[in-house]
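Researcher: Next sequence.
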Amino acid sequence: MIYQVFHKEELFKVCIKDNARIRPIGVGPAVSFCEKNGILSDFSGRDNISHLNHLLSEWSAIYWIWRNMNQISDSDSWVGICHYRRPPASALMADNCQVVGSILDKCDMLSWVPNYNSLAGQSQKDHPGLIELMASAISTCHGEKSARKFLAMSGIPTFNPYSLCFIMKKESFAGFAAWSWKVIDLLVYASSTEESVMAGFDTKAPRGIGYIAERLLPVWCFLNKINVLYTISGAYPSLGQMVDSKLMEAECAMSS
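Model: Next structure:
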């Protein structure tokens, strides 16, 4: 199942509603509308962080899917996330074939909004302290070795999965969510303290931690040697590019 995230009532109109492979999920401001109309939201069930949506954006939906995966009844061995304005290619939503499953036998993850840049290059203008903040948080949560690898890869331009639009096997998704949540939870805690500004980055800012959370996906992919197959302008996934994390790791080793 691919979950299409929307955050306003009017945006539900552009979500895909007539396909068994994709399901809209409302977050934050859309919760009331969802409850009135029987639509899935990040407020469903007891284990949710809908109240943090103003900080985390799409991650409140990712958290809900991760923590409630055992209650999700679908036959797919994979799970996907996309935005209301960035649905996957139609081939990935085919109801009567196993396109996604067959592709995930050859790669670890599918993504259809690739960005060719370095993480440091993305943040340098508007968030100059972001890389240092991420490195500190990753070191605290996952160790100094992971932080050093992150710092090495953050300066290398490469394709990276952007905007949290992806599909991966459920066990990989659970691993990604658990790894990322440790970092996000640390930043959420920081946002509730008097020292909410870290390395010049205000963790209390609307969507602030969500901005960081988007960039945790390529970091997790790199650290775990995840091969990502990208679609190009919505084309069939076979036209995408496989990113070899082992090759990138070698480049990082030479630059560090």
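Model: Confidence is low (pLDDT under 50) at residues 233-244. Residues 170-191 form the longest helix (22 residues).
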